[in-house]
Amino acid sequence: MYRVKPGSTRVFAAVTLATALSLSACGGSGSSDSGDGDTAADGQWPLTITDDAGHEVTIDEAPESIVSTSVTLTGSLLAVDAPVTASGATMPNSPVADDQGFFTQWSDGAKEKDVKALYQGDPDVEAVLAEEPDLIVVSKTGQDSANAIYDQLSDIAPTVVIDYGNKDWQEVTTKLGEITGHEDEAKKANDEFGSRAEEVKSAIDAPKQPVTGMIFNEKAKGGGSGASANIWTPESAQGKLLQEVGFELAEVPEGTAGQGEMGKRADIVEVTGENLSKAVTGESVFLFNANEKTAASYAKNSLVESTPAVKNDAVYPMGLDSFRLDYYSATNVLDRIEDEFGK
């Protein structure tokens, strides 16, 4: 039960879709024979928007060289076939990242497009400047945010701040499509995912309902003893994905939520300690940011051993790449669900 079936072929398929979008959309930024790609951008430039930090930003022409300072947003830029040439990165050679620090779910696509890893961790203004971008994309929050140096970045090129913390990944994809002139590609990626979700919904025998989706933390924050969980609500991207394939989300009983350091959020319910046994009411549990080892450890934890899902032997890992969803990782989750429950 505690298994993640191989998804490498499906990851390749997701990358292939992005490549297909590239071929069908625009043959090259400098080509006079670029077909539909030019049509998508016709008539909207210069484009003036108000970004998620309240800045009014004018983009004079369709971008041809985009620097993403957020490794989280880079995947969505690739999914819409935007001309991203360089990106900030996370720690390389980790369970979720390749040797450049790019997330595994889209690292093949980044290599195909020769996306350069500018830095790992803290943003490097000089590295961004050296790329001579005509558009810079920044995340408002998160560990990959370069919002603190917005003024320096905006002196280099038009700089747009995107808040991925209050949007699902489809909304982020749509927004990035708008600011890059790749609205058609963004719509196509979102539509492809929606069609795939419907396909999976029809192809599976659903597990016992309702279900709880969560991230399980074996150790307390700071390295102490104990365990905690962030349970996805219907407002979260992960919760919406589970509902798209026909699953019913279990309710979290009142009085079980903790007072987490992340404050009140609409997308998660933070639960700690003994409250886990009361809060995890799903007949099945879907563990995000988890592999087979995580699921096995969860099932053995004394705080949840009496919960319905553990008793049902119904604990399912959704992959280490599922912590933060984009087109690629969300598609991988669908593939894992189909692999597990396919008729």
UniProtKB/TrEMBL annotation:
<dbReference type="GO" id="GO:0030288">
    <property type="term" value="C:outer membrane-bounded periplasmic space"/>
</dbReference>
<feature type="compositionally biased region" description="Low complexity">
    <location>
        <begin position="27"/>
        <end position="43"/>
    </location>
</feature>
<dbReference type="Pfam" id="PF01497">
    <property type="entry name" value="Peripla_BP_2"/>
</dbReference>
<feature type="region of interest" description="Disordered">
    <location>
        <begin position="27"/>
        <end position="47"/>
    </location>
</feature>
<dbReference type="InterPro" id="IPR002491">
    <property type="entry name" value="ABC_transptr_periplasmic_BD"/>
</dbReference>
<comment type="similarity">
    <text>Belongs to the bacterial solute-binding protein 8 family.</text>
</comment>
<feature type="signal peptide">
    <location>
        <begin position="1"/>
        <end position="27"/>
    </location>
</feature>
<dbReference type="GO" id="GO:1901678">
    <property type="term" value="P:iron coordination entity transport"/>
</dbReference>
<keyword id="KW-0732">Signal</keyword>
<feature type="domain" description="Fe/B12 periplasmic-binding">
    <location>
        <begin position="65"/>
        <end position="343"/>
    </location>
</feature>
<protein>
    <submittedName>
        <fullName>Fe2+-enterobactin ABC transporter substrate-binding protein</fullName>
    </submittedName>
</protein>
<keyword id="KW-0813">Transport</keyword>
<dbReference type="InterPro" id="IPR051313">
    <property type="entry name" value="Bact_iron-sidero_bind"/>
</dbReference>
